[in-house]
Structures are given as structure tokens and as C-alpha cells.
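User: Sorry, what's this?
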Amino acid sequence: MLIIREHIDETPSIKTIRFTETLKARPGQFVMAWVPGVDEFPMSVSYAGRKFGMTYQVVGDGTKALARLRTGDIVGIRGPYGKGFEIKGRKILVVAGGTGMAALGPLIEDAKARKCSVDLVLGARTSKELLFETRATKAGASVHVSTDDGSKGFKGLASELAESVLEEGKFDLICACGPEKMIVSLLRVAKKKRTGMQASLERIMKCGIGICDSCALDGRHVCKDGPVFDDAQLGAFEELGKTKLDLAGRKTPI
């Protein structure tokens, strides 16, 4: 049970909770957060080490309850769980779609600490929903912004802007987190450019340890085998970007 140190409004719909306690985690790992009396759900680790933090979008009953908590309140935390990103090479392209940036903030800071060159393609529906743009700039990343409505930067999808950035220079690795359709598009570009790729996938997770089967993807468990997968693993998934399991375990189209 961890004590909330600060609760920050990042955008109109995205918040960050930081705690008084420390939690060590690799970029890309997640925790299971429990709001007593309400629910437990997966959260990306957006800050590791001192003042561990997690960033989330207010979308359902669980996150609405989380959003009502204040400084001094407590949250139950299990983890960290899963496989994180593995930095390879010296020049990295990071592609974030929406709240996917929550998992990628620590990666950018870790890569820059290792003296890597980092370009970030940061996408959101509108300029007001851009997450961690200032944080990435302060870390030393070259930031390229895309918005669906054209309110800032490139008007269009993050995957479209990423393809343009890839045409301008050679990268050793692409790291991504966001909607599966975006990841599928990036995977095609990465294969064409012969660039290695790792992506964090988002699926419904109820246990976080590979027991409940709610995050199953082509026989793998995103919570345990991922959430970060490399390009070879991603390319082998027949369901990627096509279908997912809903809360009742039924296969539904994406």
C-alpha cells in the first residue's frame, strides 16, 4: 500500500500519480493498481526510482475512482510485471500514440542517459492531449508532433509522421506504444526499412501474471510474455490489429 505524494493533471483527460515510495522498474514494465473497494487494473510505470509514478487516462469506473484520490490517500500496488524495452543501437526512433507515451517517457530518459540519439514522434487527437512533450524535450529528444485535427504539428497519424522521419534518416531501433493499428503500420515500415522494432501492446489484464487468460494473443500472454515484443514476435501474431478479447473473454474486432 503506497501513499500518494502528488496527483497531477497532465492533460484534460490524463493524470499522473506519484508516490512517496520507491519502485524499481524497467522502461515498459507495468504494475497492477488497486483502489480499495473499487477495482484493480494495469498501469504503465511512467516514473521509476524515487517518487515512483504511474500515468493514466480517465475512461472507466476504476480510473474515475483513482482520479478522485488526493495527496495522502493510499493505492495498492503489485509489480512491476512483464518484459520491458531493451535498448539496442545508438540511434532510436520512439513513436507514441496517445497515452502510449506513459510507457515511453522512462525509455527516452534511459536512452539519453546511455548517450543515445533519440527522435520522438508524439501523436494525439488534439494538441491539448499531447503527453510529456516538455519532459521529452528536457531529456534531450528531438520531438516531432502529430495531431489528428492538425491543432499542432503534422496533421495526421503518428505512424504517417514516423514514416516521414524514417525516410529522412537511418535508425537502429524503433520503440513504440499506442493503438494496435498504429503498431501494425509501423511494423510494415520497419520491415521495409530493415529496422529493428519493439512495441508495447495494450490488452485487458485482470491478473498481471499469466493466469486469467484475458490478455491472450495468439496463445501468448501480453502481461507475462510482453507487454513489449520485438518485430519477429509482432510479425508472427495473426490477431495483431484485428481482434482482441473483451471483458467477458469474447473475441471482438479492433
